[in-house]
Design brief:
With about 150 residues, the chain is α+β, with helices and mostly antiparallel strands. The chain is built from four helices and six strands.
């Protein structure tokens, strides 16, 4: 009944105006958190799941990955994870197939989980001749190039 009265009073411009709270959208926050044992895992899970707005916390200790789903802010989740005393950062890896040059020094990381490389912004040289040279070397061994080298 209260909802109907508020609606009608809103239509006719009478009464007080209630503040509408904007709900945050559900988002997924991925973190890399250093965890060595079950105790570390439990400590991180307990700290993150007690946050307001968190719906689920998933931990993959082998990859050192924590996934938090809910109506939360990524920086607040990161801050809470660091408050546990563990080394934490936002998930720095992307799948291998999404990176143009996965073996450049900035992207290749020995500690990355299988199938992942470090997320880096591509830095293109300002000289257009160098870019053409790089493209030529890349396509030389490409599967799409019918004239490519076929050494097995």
């Amino acid at each position: 009944m209260g909802g109907t009265l508020e609606y009608l009073s809103g239509l006719f411009g009478g009464g007080h105006k209630s503040k509408k709270l904007k709900k945050k959208q559900i988002q997924t926050v991925e973190l890399k958190v250093r965890m060595d044992c079950d105790g570390c895992e439990l400590k991180v899970k307990k700290a993150l799941s007690s946050m307001k707005g968190v719906e689920s916390v998933t931990i993959n200790r082998k990859q050192q990955k924590v996934t938090v789903v809910g109506r939360v802010d990524a920086n607040k989740v990161l801050k809470r994870a660091k408050a546990t005393g563990k080394k934490a950062e936002l998930w720095p890896y992307v799948p291998y197939n999404l990176v143009t040059y996965p073996y450049i020094t900035q992207a290749y990381d020995k500690k990355a989980p299988p199938g992942y490389v470090r997320k880096v912004e591509p830095v293109l040289s300002s000289n257009p001749e160098n870019i053409r040279q790089e493209e030529r070397y890349i396509t030389m061994f490409s599967d799409e190039n019918p004239n490519s080298c076929s050494v097995m």
